[in-house]
Amino acid sequence: MVTLETARLILRRWREEDIAPMAAVNADPEVMRWIRDGSVRDEEQTRRGVRAWESEWESQGFGLFAVEVRSTGELAGFTGLSVPHFLPEVLPAVEVGWRLGRSHWGQGLATEAAAAAVRFGFEERGLERIVSVTQVGNNASERIMAKLGMHPVRETVHPTCGRRVRVFELSSDQYVTTTR
Question: Which one of 15, 31, 43, 120 is separated from 54 by 20 to 30 angstroms, measured CA to CA?
Fold first, then answer.
């Protein structure tokens, strides 16, 4: 079982007791504003999502981590790596993504968590490139991508919801250069 630790966070695999707090994150319209069509998700949808994330760990050797705040043990949300099957034009690729509850915004936690996931992808899983996809207008996510050293490589339309998205990318060579 992979667990990553940062100064303020523990990135770990999912537990049953994570479902309700993650469902609360997914039920917040402001959190979900930039996710697909903006629809919120209920507890059963969240449970299915967590099962799928755990399955990806088994099949790919990477996946989405539950993000726990070290000082409180509270579940903040998720970060990690997944294959962006929803956007076939960027495949083959691995995407870094994150979703934190609003009470955890504005503290640098998403950047801290995503940076740990990127490091894991390049250093532990030997990935050649990592992408990140955000809807056009989601400036907060674009700022995180820039802090990760990513740069925009294309703009396209999300095939399931019709919203414009921007794809950012970081190669393993660029990662090595930026972490020296």
Answer: 31
Q: pLDDT, tens digit, for every residue of 128-163?
A: 999 999 999 999 999 999 999 999 999 999 999 999
Residue with tokens 């449970």: 47
CB 166, CB 134: distance < 8 Å: yes
In terms of pTM, does the model score above 0.85?
yes
| pLDDT digit string, tens, across residues 76-132 | 999 999 999 999 999 999 999 999 999 999 999 999 999 999 999 999 999 999 999
What's the CA gap between 93 and 91, in Å, rounded? 5
Answer yes or no: are the C-beta atoms of 18 and 10 closer than 8 Å.
Answer: no
DSSP per-residue codes, 122-145? IIIT--SEEEEEEETT-HHHHHHH
How far apart CA 52 and CA 23 sit, in angstroms, is 15
Say if strands 4-5 and 9-12 run parallel, antiparallel, or are unpaired.
antiparallel
Residues 14 and 53 sit within 8 Å (Cβ to Cβ): yes
Strand partners, 167: 133, 154
3-state DSSP: the chain helix, strand, coil percent, rounded to 5? Answer: 40, 25, 35
